[in-house]
Design a protein that fits this description.
Blueprint: E1 5-10, H1 12-18, H2 23-30, H3 34-41, H4 49-58, H5 63-66, E2 67-72
Antiparallel strand pairs: 1-2
Helix pairs in contact: 2-3, 2-4
Length: 74
């Protein structure tokens, strides 16, 4: 079985801006640091499941609207 070629992508920046929130606003609402939000938006960091749900809840949307799994499993 080969290595999976999938990665987590997100629409965090777009959804955050549409909601009129700053990175700090969202960080405070989700209980994480602004640096965490920056890293997630830049797709440099994949959040834990708990943090993903907290972010989605803070944006009043579903986690699948914020995060998507791209690519194919081998």
């Amino acid at each position: 079985m080969g290595k999976a070629t999938r990665r987590l992508t997100n629409r965090l920046r777009e959804l955050r801006q549409d909601a009129g929130l700053t990175q700090q606003d969202l960080a405070d609402a989700a209980g994480v640091t602004r640096q965490t939000i920056i890293a997630i938006e830049g797709e440099k960091y994949s959040p834990s499941l708990e943090v993903a749900f907290l972010i989605a809840e803070s944006l009043e949307t579903g986690v699948e609207d914020v995060f998507q799994l791209q690519g194919r499993a081998r």
